[in-house]
Automatic annotation (TrEMBL):
Top EC group: transferase
Protein name as annotated: histidine kinase
A Pfam entry, by short name: HisKA_3
MF annotations from Gene Ontology: ATP binding; phosphorelay sensor kinase activity; protein dimerization activity
InterPro entries documented for this protein: HATPase_C_sf (IPR036890), Sensor_HK_TwoCompSys (IPR050482), Sig_transdc_His_kin_sub3_dim/P (IPR011712)
Domain Signal transduction histidine kinase subgroup 3 dimerisation and phosphoacceptor: 223-283
Keyword set, alphabetical order: ATP-binding, Kinase, Membrane, Nucleotide-binding, Phosphoprotein, Transferase, Transmembrane, Transmembrane helix, Two-component regulatory system
Catalytic reaction(s) noted: ATP + protein L-histidine = ADP + protein N-phospho-L-histidine
TM region positions: 18-36, 56-76, 82-108, 120-140, 163-185
EC nos: 2.7.13.3
GO CC annotation terms, alphabetical: membrane
Organism, as annotated: Phytohabitans rumicis
Amino acid sequence: MHSPPHPDAAWQEWLPDAAAGLIVAALGLVIAILNYGAFDEYAGAVPLGLSPYRQVALLAVVAIVMGAAIGLSRLAPGAALATVWVLAGTHVLVGVPILATELAVVVVAFGTARWGSTAIVWLSALSIPAGAIVAVRFLASDIRRVLSGFIDLSALANLAEQWQPGAIVIGAALLGLPWMAGMVLRVAAGARTTADLASVDVARAEADRAQARQIARLREDQARLARDVHDVVGHSLAVILAQAESGQYLPDGDPAALKTTLANIADSARTSLQSVRHVLSATQEGIAAPTPGLDSLVEGLRTSGHEVASTESGAPQPMPPELELTAFRTLQEMATNAMKHGRRDRPITVERRWPDGDWEATLRISVSNVAAAEPATWLPDWTAGQGLTGMRERVESAGGRLDVDRRDVAGEPRFTATAWIPVRRSLP
């Protein structure tokens, strides 16, 4: 759940533990010096027959080692736990009296549960009942001596041997309380870490979604730009090439007609160049390019030399800029396809029907022409297959629909494209 801090952790983290360890070691040294010569009274004998001086020195070592265990409880919980067990073995085997400062072992119990590895947590959990048994079975007299300095134990003086099981339970509970407190804080820290990681994951996912949306917008803008350039260039080339072809059939002795045709070609090229510039500038600046009227497209068809039968029904209505542009580009592509695939000796039919009431809020645009026996080859190959797909995507993105039909009418193959385009924005 939680790994111990790395030895190279900032000294500020370790400073409180080091200060606590120094305090415990200093108090232990003071107790050892103040009780010089009184160990026979406490322990019943001098440990291993040592002189009082050496006995004080031994207790000073115990005090320092206990302080070190406290100082290592966060930085190295495993080492702190091992140190406590070494001290317990020293008390049992050597008979060194217990110092009051060794009650700070509860800090080690807390530290092993809070900062120890999984193995240390299990070892510390097993050490709690084991330590209580060792304390009651082998160190009971020393522990009573230490506790008598803090509480009155006279009521327990005449208890029989049956007190030991209860004392073991009490001792385990006293050690278990700080251990459980460490476990509670460990779990809480793990939950906070999990929550922090979850927050990071959520933030990363949100950033990924934002990036994906930005990429999608860029791709959509690129696709829209490609469609607009395709529509403008394709339509202009169709008009220019149709006018150039018609010029081949002008009488040789009619220079005025030839000049008119060349002027129309120049006007178409100039208009095409201006339209491309508007499309590119609008894309770069993020503004809507001005949209010519639908009538201009019909007139452009006529100047190309095609016969056009144009009808318009209903009252024209103002449209939002994006829908107006959709209607213009759709009719533009329809007219381009009609010039590209239609017969020049048959008229192109253009119908526009505006909505008559609120129940029908769409503009119906239909372009029909007699298909040529052989497909035209005078337009560049890069326009093949792109017009209908782009037109359908454009109309559907605006909330409309497109229908393309090819059937025989009076023995002639007639190609009809019909689009229904909303005249108002859809409600969100």
